[in-house]
Write a structure and sequence with these properties.
The chain is an alpha/beta fold. Helices cover 30% and strands 21% of the residues.
Length: 1504
């Protein structure tokens, strides 16, 4: 009972509660009264709040004290810990906190606290133990959240083999006998009846449903939908969104570039000057791995060695007449990051030789992350030569015979070693050509774009020189200063300052390689201290690492630094890094004005830099911007909520001699308003000049003329786009808020990937995230970008911690950035692709994510919260009656959708069979007329006949069985007899024995000896439902039915009489029973439908004769013909072909039990070939086995002499939509052994009428059409061209049998529909079954399904049977046998199976087809709904690490192709999805097993 909010059943709130707890209680009660939480949720939260204050007594409900296991614990409610504790925590986690932002951390904690009230009850994913193979640590400490492994005894797959058990008909689920079709539709949507509440899966789903009931942020407007098109919701702009209000900005100029009289005319000239006049001056000092100086290059050495290299390159590589290199050629520089000296010599050697250096990273493996794109760059630059060092060359990966491997995507390269000993000294008279700097290319710097493509930014000699001049002026460099560089010296600021500007100003550079920083993070600080360096070039991470390690060195002094250049000063975490570093090192002499953030980009080079300050001058300001404003591209000082603020520091002023403007990031380069964020563009001589070899993209980036709001150009100076987003603030200070490459545009709002990374890191990531490695990117799914966050997980992180961190990151990002995360994944440490300097290679990570090769160990998808642009759910429009629809169709010129086979009455048969009304009479007549004529031939796995039956033998055998039924069974006419036999002739004999005795046979598939628990209950159920008086079977099966194993599955004491028919006495039957009328029952046909319903139908003698006659006419069967049957003979058309048709038509049937194919795949095809069969019948499972098993063995088939050219029809017997892909691939594969492309076709039957369509021998070939899937969901058929998006290929299901009429009907209104509509297929025919066989005949259902009338129209007086299948009729251009145009019937799927979601009708197979295509490791897939959730079960045939890769791929494809959000993705082992003997998926069984938690899944992901 629900207590009133005031009191709790267990405890009343104790007196003297702290104030904040009382407030939280009040808030809870408010939530309950407003309906925001359920009563249960209220009680749980209330109990949790009060728990610390309630004395623990036995009386208290234990449930109130124990926190539920799989709910994410709420972020801790304790106030922030004291600073000392905080410091202790920080020093512990060595380097994870490299992006630590205290401002951000506070914001995140506040955001999480806000969420704490509406605690997200995210269900934790269910994971099989072995999947989490992350680290040895796991073996010792299993995470606590694992429940007891589910009981797998009840699973359907045999544990021994992962192969799918061949053909198992599982017991029907929740049967109400005779309750079928429509009446059961409602129960499909009920809750999981009978599922124990304790089960993991069902409680999780319940939790998930509770989270989904919470209102989503963008509320859907009330809607009415146009029935003809699904319209994707276009996000409407928020009327309250901030809009820029400032005036249009004017370009900002930097100070003029000073004219210094002794500035060299070219950079090479500066080198020549210092190399010849100041030869002893140190130029560059390299460190060894321990951080000790190992070698100092002087200016003299640099000059002489560069000269030698230049001479060697131009004169010594080829012959005199055919030099390998000419001035202007491009050369790759491949030098490791710890060898700046060799790199510097090579770089200047190239400049002196006038060849163009292209520095790239050292390739480590044949397939480095992004290596292929580097290869593309080398190819497009036409590079054939690579310079490297001897040591580096030795370390490159080699092939077996010692050659350097061919790197993926790279051109063939000649490798040249530039160590001094291999260089030739230049003759005295040789001088390099040093001309004044012009616009000719100097070097090419590579850059990786957002998509991962690599482009070469070409820098001209004049730009290189001007840039050095501008940097010298901005940084106020003076000759002989010492600088420390921690950056990559091959590119960007590292190259500009430590390799180029340093030579211009005769600086001494100390180069600290990345590898030293890893072992000794403080090394750069020590170098500054030791060398009294004036300038240091670092990134934020270096500041962090130094802070982590600063305790080791108390006596370092940074007082010599006048500039600490922070080159990634544009990052969201740079402010707090700089602040924290300053506060820690100010006591070591670091001056506040020395910190100089700068902004750079490969295209624009240095965009802005803060000038070294004057002591005592006020420090530059900060901008505290509203995140919400930023997402709309507008600058708003944050006032309302300090949690969603971004604090940015300025990066100084525009470069000397430069000019800057801000333009809109997309569309024409329109100047922004002063309060608008845009892309920073720079105009000066110091930028790049082009992307090498890419003229199109170049124009768009390097030759931008800004335009005003009217679109007319402003000035004629070209600008270069920097790729940075920002604005110019007061005092012309430049602020950068992000990069174009990191821009995520979600529903029209812009977010910055770095900001989201910063938020993720601020959520106590220490326990979970490995070294702060988080990647954020967006993928386009369903017409919008979706944010994906991928982090590396620490090897020792527990499952509980990880999940808690993940759910809190989701909340924090949601709260701070107001944007939903589509997918958040954790991967094992060190598995994300790396950039050369160890960062995360984003584009490669994204590619792995989309390919499904990231192998996450934890994943959360939240499509429900962030996909807000789904089309409106369709609402059925009431009020239009069926009659008006019909009139509308007729007016529109559409025919009523109906079709019929040839007329039975007009076809006269000369056959004597017409005289006999009963099949038993036909057999007696054949036994007299043609006693020796062979009717049946049964083959074994070797293809040898094991049993045959002539007309007389069959008749005699039937007589004996009839007599034993009288004697042993004491049966009366009309009793039901279950026939339990393996496929064979014994089954046929028993069938006719029953007819002779006047009993009614019921054929049942025998139980599987290895899997009795799954298969015996079905047998038991049919025996009970059919009220069988006796069971006829073989001795072995009789023993099995009474065995001990059987007793564990069913009650064996209650079987009816069991008679084995192996050794029968030779007795004459006194007389053969003759039914008084043909309307009497002949046999019962029981079958389990795919939805798990067991249905028996009654077949009268008249229907049997009509059925046999229709098949005889359609297939032209007569006594001299032979057909081969490879089918299960227990129900439907399979039974009729196996047992009835040969006796009626007299043709010979070669019987091939499908299970024999498991031991000999060739059996069916070799039989068809050997006996020169013209017509053969099989099932989909047989065709599938042959396609998969023999597809690559066509040569073996040829060698065995198998030839299928004689086959006229190969018919698949089915009760489903034709599997076009399978039949096509079968035809294609075996075309080489003579199979005609026209031979393969399918049949269509249903429970009410087992044979509606069958291709037959005459008549046009089966036709195919492409229909639009979107229209099908609206029950309309729209034909489209092949290859149209969202098209579905359908094939006609054979030709309608003689005497059969079909009409397409609206299942709701029961009115006939027009040609272009999807409706239920209704059938009228003399061989329709006469009703369901049930314990209590449900008359209404009987009438509705077997004898129903149309609600109006011409055919309203005809009695129709409802097949329960949806389909449509289409008039083709072909001519039918009657000379009329042929009407083709297309079956789309069973009405029972369809899923009603968002007001539309989906066919599971369409969703499954999409899912199966997404990843190579998906073996099989099945979907079903539970309440309103779509559940997708996929079988994984790869390794278990791939299980989680499937979750986002499955979610993406279903969203893209079907506009549906997947609620649960279940990854299981191969063979778990139950498939019946007809090869159909048993989705309802699967659903029951899922809800009862019997699937033993590898992983269950609940999409939020």
């Amino acid at each position: 009972m629900a207590e009133p909010p005031g009191g709790n059943g267990a405890v009343s709130p104790p007196a003297g509660l702290p104030r904040e707890v009382r407030e939280q209680l009040a808030e809870l009660e408010l939530e309950l009264s407003e309906g925001d939480i359920t009563q249960k949720g209220y009680e749980k939260k209330r109990a949790k709040l009060l728990a610390p204050y309630i004395p623990q007594t036995q009386g208290v409900d234990a449930g109130l004290q124990k926190e539920p296991r799989n709910q994410t614990p709420a972020p801790s409610a304790t106030p922030a810990p004291s600073s000392s504790k905080y410091h202790r925590a920080r020093s512990g986690g060595a380097r994870d906190e490299r992006y630590r932002s205290d401002i951000h951390t506070e914001a995140v904690q506040a955001a999480l606290a806000k969420h704490k009230e509406q605690k997200m009850a995210l269900p934790m994913p269910t994971k099989r133990r072995s999947t989490f193979v992350q680290s040895p640590a796991d073996t010792c400490t299993p995470p606590e959240n694992f429940s007891v492994p589910p009981d797998v005894t009840a699973t359907t797959s045999t544990p021994a083999s992962s192969v799918r058990p061949s053909a198992i008909d599982l017991p029907p689920s929740g049967i109400v006998k005779g309750m079928h079709k429509a009446s059961n539709r409602s129960s499909l949507m009920d809750t999981a009846d009978g599922v124990p509440v304790s089960s993991r899966v069902s409680t999780k789903i319940q939790q998930l449903l509770n989270t989904l009931k919470r209102p989503k942020r963008p509320p859907l407007k009330e809607f009415f939908v146009d029935d003809f098109e699904e319209i994707v919701e276009v996000p409407q702009p928020d009327p309250n969104q901030p809009k820029p209000e400032g005036r249009q900005m004017t370009p900002v100029k930097g100070e003029p570039l000073g004219v210094v009289c002794n500035w060299p005319p070219a950079l090479e000239a500066a080198l020549q000057r210092w190399g010849t006049t100041q030869a002893k001056c140190p130029c560059l000092t390299a460190l060894d791995v321990t951080g000790k100086p190992v070698y100092t290059l002087t200016y003299g050495k640099l000059w002489s060695r560069s000269l030698k290299l230049a001479y060697t390159l131009l004169n010594k590589l080829g012959t005199k007449n055919e030099p390998v290199l000419k001035p202007g050629d491009r050369v790759a520089l491949v030098y490791p990051n710890n060898d700046p000296v060799m790199f510097m010599v090579a770089f200047y050697g190239c400049l002196l030789a006038e060849v163009i250096p292209v520095p790239i990273e050292v390739p480590l493996t044949r397939k480095d992350a992004g290596g292929q794109q580097i290869g593309f760059l080398l190819g497009s630059c036409g590079i054939a030569l690579a310079l490297t060092t001897e040591v580096c060359l030795k370390g490159l990966p080699k092939t077996q015979n010692g050659e350097i491997v061919q790197f993926k995507g790279w051109p063939r390269l000649k490798w040249v070693v530039t160590d001094s000993k291999y260089l030739s000294k230049s003759p005295k008279d040789w001088q390099p050509n040093i001309s004044n700097a012009g616009t000719e290319p100097a070097y090419i710097e590579y850059k990786t774009s957002k998509e991962g493509s690599v482009m070469g930014v070409t820098v001209s000699r004049i730009a290189m020189l001007s840039h050095c001049q501008a940097l010298s002026q901005a940084c106020n460099y003076s000759e002989g200063e010492t600088i420390v560089n921690v950056l990559d010296f091959k590119k960007d600021a590292g190259l500009w300052h430590s390799m180029l500007t340093s030579v211009m100003n005769k600086l001494h550079t100390i180069s600290v390689p990345y590898s030293v920083m890893k072992t000794c993070p403080l090394s750069w600080v020590q170098r500054v201290h030791t060398h009294k360096a004036r300038v240091a070039l670092v990134k934020c991470r270096d500041l962090h690492w130094a802070m982590m390690a600063h305790r080791d060195q108390r006596d370092v002094s940074l007082s010599s630094l006048r500039m600490l250049i922070v080159t990634d000063g544009a990052n969201p975490w740079s402010v707090s890094s700089c602040d924290a570093f300053l506060s820690l090192f100010q006591s070591h002499g670091l001056k506040p004005e020395a910190i100089c953030p700068c902004a750079t980009s490969p295209e624009a080079m240095t965009v802005a830099i803060r000038r070294p300050g004057v002591p005592g001058a006020p420090l530059p300001g900060r901008a505290i911007l509203s995140m919400n404003g930023l997402s709309y591209g507008v600058i708003r000082v944050n006032t309302e909520d300090k949690n969603s603020a971004l604090t940015v520091q300025d990066v100084g002023h525009v470069m000397p001699g430069g000019m800057m403007c801000i333009v809109k990031p997309d569309g024409p380069p329109q100047l922004c308003k002063t309060d608008e964020i845009g892309e920073i563009c720079v105009s000066s001589r110091t930028g790049g000049m082009m992307y090498y070899g890419l003229t199109g993209v170049t124009k768009n980036t390097f030759e931008v003329i800004p335009v005003n709001s009217a679109g007319s150009p402003v000035g004629d100076v070209p600008f270069v786009r920097s790729g940075l987003l920002g604005f110019v603030g007061p005092g012309s200070l430049v602020f950068v808020v992000g990069k174009i490459d990191g821009l995520l545009i979600v529903s029209g709002r812009r977010h910055n990937a770095d900001d989201i990374v910063a938020t993720g890191l601020a959520v106590e990531s220490i326990k979970t995230v490995y070294r702060g490695r988080i990647a954020v990117f967006s993928v386009t799914v369903f017409y919008d970008e979706r944010i994906v966050v991928i982090a590396e997980q620490r090897p020792d992180a527990s499952e509980e911690d990880s999940f808690q961190w993940m759910s809190r990151v989701l909340q924090a990002i949601d709260s701070i950035h107001q944007v939903g995360v589509y997918c958040l994944a954790l991967v094992p440490a060190n598995t994300l692709p790396k950039t050369p300097l160890g960062g995360i290679h984003i584009s490669q990570t994204k590619q792995h994510f989309l390919e499904g090769s990231l192998h996450p160990c934890n994943i959360l998808m939240c499509p429900h919260t962030c996909v807000t642009n789904l089309p409106k759910p369709r609402q059925k429009q009431p009020g239009v009656g069926p009659a008006s629809v019909m009139v509308g169709n007729l007016v529109a010129g559409k025919r009523i959708a109906q079709a019929s086979g040839r007329d039975l009455g007009q076809i006269e048969e000369n056959d004597l069979v017409r005289k006999h009304q009963f099949l038993s009479e036909v057999l007696q007549w054949r036994a007299q007329a043609t006693p020796e004529h062979m009717l049946f031939l049964l083959l074994n796995a070797k293809g040898a006949p094991v049993c045959t039956a002539t007309c007389l033998q069959l008749h005699k055998r039937a007589e004996r069985i009839a007599s034993i039924l009288f004697e042993k069974g004491h049966l009366n006419a009309g009793d039901n007899v279950v026939l339990l036999y393996p496929p064979g002739i014994e089954l046929i004999a028993a069938f006719y024995g029953c007819l002779y005795a006047g009993c009614i046979p019921v054929t049942v598939r025998p139980p599987h000896a290895q899997n009795l628990t799954a298969t015996l209950p079905t047998v038991r159920m049919i025996v009970e439902v059919s009220k069988a008086a006796c069971i006829l079977t073989s001795q072995t099966l009789m023993r099995l039915l009474r065995s001990r194993e059987a007793a564990t599955a069913v009650d064996v004491k209650t079987w009816p009489t069991i008679i084995d028919t192996d050794d029968l006495p030779r007795k004459r039957l006194p007389q053969v029973y003759k039914p008084p009328t043909p309307e009497m029952l002949a046999y019962l046909d029981f079958s389990v439908s795919t939805t798990g319903m067991l249905t028996g139908v009654k077949m009268s003698h008249a229907a049997v004769s009509a059925l046999c006659r229709a098949i005889k006419l359609q297939c032209e069967l007569y006594s001299s013909r032979q057909i081969a049957i490879c089918l299960d003979p227990y129900c439907g058309l399979g039974f009729a072909l196996w047992c009835l048709c040969s006796v009626y038509s007299g043709h010979q049937s070669i019987l091939i039990p499908p299970m024999e194919l498991e031991t000999n795949l060739f059996l069916w095809l070799s039989t068809v070939s050997q006996y020169k069969i013209r017509d053969t019948f099989c099932s989909y499972s047989v065709m599938d086995m042959c396609t998969k098993g023999l597809g690559n063995q066509v040569d073996v088939l040829k060698a065995r002499g198998i030839n299928l050219s004689g086959v006229r029809t190969c018919v698949v017997v089915a009760e489903e939509r034709p599997r076009v892909a399978l039949t096509h691939s079968f035809s294609k594969l075996f075309k080489d052994i003579g199979l005609s492309s026209r031979a393969v076709s399918t049949t269509f039957g249903s429970r009410v009428n087992v044979a509606i369509c069958l291709q037959g021998t005459s008549g046009p070939d089966p036709t195919t059409v492409y229909v639009d899937l979107k229209s099908l969901r609206h029950d309309r058929v729209r034909l489209v061209e092949r290859g149209a998006p969202q098209s579905l290929l359908l094939s006609e299901s054979g030709k309608i049998l003689p005497g059969v009429k079909v009409i397409i009907v609206n299942p709701e209104t029961k009115g006939p529909v027009g040609d272009s509509h999807l409706g239920e297929i209704w059938v009228n025919s003399p061989h329709t079954a006469s009703g369901y066989y049930t314990i209590y005949d449900n008359e209404t259902l009987q009438a509705d399904h077997f004898n129903t009338r149309l609600s109006f129209g011409d055919a309203a007086h005809t009695l129709w049977a409802r097949t329960g299948y949806l389909g449509f009729v289409r008039r083709t251009e072909l001519t039918a046998a009657s000379g009329e145009r042929h009407d083709a019937l297309y079956v789309v799927g069973a009405l029972d199976e369809t899923l009603e979601l968002r007001g539309l009708r989906y066919h599971p197979i369409d969703i499954e087809t999409s899912v199966s295509r997404t990843h190579r490791s998906i073996a099989e897939c099945a979907v079903f709904t539970w309440t309103n959730l779509l559940v997708v079960v996929v079988e994984l045939c790869g390794c278990e690490q791939e299980a989680l890769d499937l979750v986002p791929l499955v979610t993406n494809v279903v969203l893209e192709e079907h506009c549906l959000i997947v609620g649960v993705v279940v990854v299981v082992d191969p063979g778990v999805i139950p498939i019946n003997s007809r090869g159909e998926k048993q989705r309802m069984h699967l659903r029951d097993s899922f809800l009862a938690d019997q699937l033993d899944p590898i992983y269950v992901a609940y999409n939020m």
